[in-house]
Write a structure and sequence with these properties.
mainly alpha, Amino acid/polyamine transporter I, two-stranded antiparallel ribbon
């Protein structure tokens, strides 16, 4: 196949792509989710397993997704059309492209609402609303906020407008310019927060919790959680990395850029832990507080520390930047498809996708109001209505299946010559290692993550243990 060129433009440099892809990967999952699941699963041992899973599971899938994107040079849907024809495979594989585009819109619809929480908390913290509050007071403020559809809708709208404006400006003027500013700003803010935590009396205790492995504290479920988070934190399976890969210039090493992205993503997650756990321990709080760690536990710490309002505000600004760099990548695949297939300008396409995503997000807004409902999912009760439905549908089904399909398509459906050409690292030991991992190890690992998300793996393990 002759070299294709993206009609949307190209990244100006390898650094621009690394910043953009790292921005897509670095989001609320790194700063919100990683610390609390680390706290729930014992700290250092969980971190060690997570790092191993990034290398064995995350990197091969990321390389697969980037090479598919660069080979096709279009939106995920049209890329799969071209590559399926080139490889002479069943057209059913095109559904992989559609799945990525749809997953991006669904994830963005509720991601925008959660990002709105962070935006609101910038002002709540800066104004001193949270200063001196008890745990009950913080919980009451948070509960009253998320139960107000009007407030959630307002912040959801603002965040969607922010993302739509960036995406409407195109690859270099919009996406690239945004990440060139936001990614360094995010890292600076995170380092400031780590410096703030360094001056607390519990900094060493936080580091010990984060980096000293105690394998007696991690369970089989913890290992599977680490594997799943390593996969999801890299933004795999939703078409975003494939889309960004389509803008990557020929001759840029996919392996080297993938490693750089994974390292940046992991560094941010670890720095977030270094910033958060010393504050938790310094205020005698519980590191295993769960999803409420950021919005209910940390505000207690900021509310009782010197300059807490200032540094609390900086922390939530950090969250907003992380969410913004991810948000623009979630709607870019759908925007690109409209430009390619409906001859729309980027402004019209971005506006259309933004409005559609905003409307879907209204269901999540209402999930925290009187419209919330409870349902049983494989023995686990969920009570946030559409929000939980969308989260389960994407995180437990669409993303792992999408990532699995990408690994299989790249290693088993595309010709070896095409893959060697795109990866551009010869046919030596490094390529063979990627090939073995992607063909055999990664599909099994992602399959286990998928079954774990369904709640199937743990009962099977317990049953087998009972036999002995």
């Amino acid at each position: 196949m002759s070299e294709r060129v993206s009609i949307h433009g190209m990244w100006s440099s390898r650094l621009a792509f690394v910043l953009a892809a790292a921005g897509s990967a670095i989001g609320l999952g790194n700063i919100w989710k990683f610390p609390y699941i680390t706290g729930e699963n014992g700290g250092g041992a969980f971190v060690l397993v997570y790092l191993l899973c990034v290398a064995v599971v995350g990197l091969p899938v990321m390389m697969s997704e980037i090479l598919i994107g660069r080979r096709g040079r279009e939106s995920p849907i049209n890329t799969m059309h071209h590559l399926v024809a080139e490889a002479q495979r069943p057209r059913l594989w095109v559904l992989l492209g559609w799945s990525g585009v749809v997953a991006g819109i669904l994830i963005m619809s509720y991601y925008s609402v959660i990002a709105g929480w962070a935006m609101a908390y910038v002002f709540k913290t800066a104004s001193g609303t949270l200063t001196g509050q008890t745990a009950e007071g913080i919980a009451s403020i948070f509960g009253g906020f998320v139960a107000s559809p009007e407030k959630l809708l307002a912040w959801h709208t603002i965040f969607m407008v922010m993302n739509t404006i960036v995406v409407s400006r195109g690859v270099r003027s919009g996406l690239e310019q945004a990440v060139r500013f936001m990614m360094p700003a995010l890292l600076v803010l995170l380092l400031v927060m780590v410096g703030y935590a360094y001056n607390t009396p519990s900094f060493e205790r936080g580091l010990e919790f984060l980096f000293t492995p105690d394998f007696s504290k991690i369970s089989t479920g913890g290992v599977l959680t680490a594997m799943g988070h390593a996969f999801f934190t890299l933004s795999l399976g939703m078409g975003a990395i494939m889309m960004y890969g389509s803008y990557l210039p020929k001759g840029t090493s996919i392996a080297a850029t993938s490693i750089a992205i994974a390292l940046m993503d992991t560094l941010v997650a670890l720095l977030a832990g270094m910033a958060i756990f010393p504050l938790v321990f310094a205020n005698n709080l519980v590191p295993s507080a769960g999803p409420g760690l950021i919005f209910q536990t940390l505000p207690i710490a900021f509310g009782h520390m010197p300059y807490g309002s200032l540094f609390g505000s900086l922390f939530f600004i950090l969250l907003v930047f992380a969410a913004w760099t991810s948000g623009i990548s979630l709607i870019e695949p759908a925007v690109a498809w409209l430009v390619e297939n409906r001859s729309m300008s980027r402004v019209k396409a971005a506006t259309g996708v933004g409005i559609l995503t905003w409307f879907v997000g209204i269901a999540t807004v209402l999930s925290f109001s009187e419209w919330a409902f409870s349902f049983n999912f494989f023995g686990e009760m969920k009570s946030s209505g559409v929000f939980d439905v969308l989260d389960i549908l994407t995180a437990n089904f669409m993303l792992p299946l999408g990532g699995l399909a990408m690994a299989v398509f790249a290693s088993r459906c595309m010709s070896r010559a095409s893959v060697v050409d795109e990866l551009d690292m010869g046919d030596g030991i490094l390529f063979r290692a990627w090939y073995v991992l992607t063909r055999h190890v990664t599909p099994v690992a992602v399959g286990i993550v998928f079954l774990h998300g369904l709640g199937i793996v743990q009962p099977v393990i317990e049953f087998v243990r009972g036999l002995f």
